[in-house]
What does this fold into?
Amino acid sequence: MSCKEITELVTDYVEGRLSLGQRFRFQFHLGTCRHCRAFLRQMRTTIRLTGRLPDAAVPPSVEAELLARFRAFRR
Ligand SMILES: [Zn+2]
It folds into this structure.
């Protein structure tokens, strides 16, 4: 599972809608990727503050910033 997939699946993960296999791969990725751990933490904070999930899974601006960060991290 890639960082991009994590950003796409994070709301389903938070809401417990992933299949067992997906959840396993999701958590495995989190275990190896601190960027996605930070991303998930940020997502949970947003949910706690607003009381609901953001309307879009990931706002395009946030996704662009995340992907840029991931690329920088891999270099
Ligand atoms: Zn990642």
Q: What stands out?
A: Helices lie at 3-14, 20-32, 34-50, 60-74. The chain has one domain: 3-74. The CA atoms of residues 30 and 38 lie 9 Å apart.
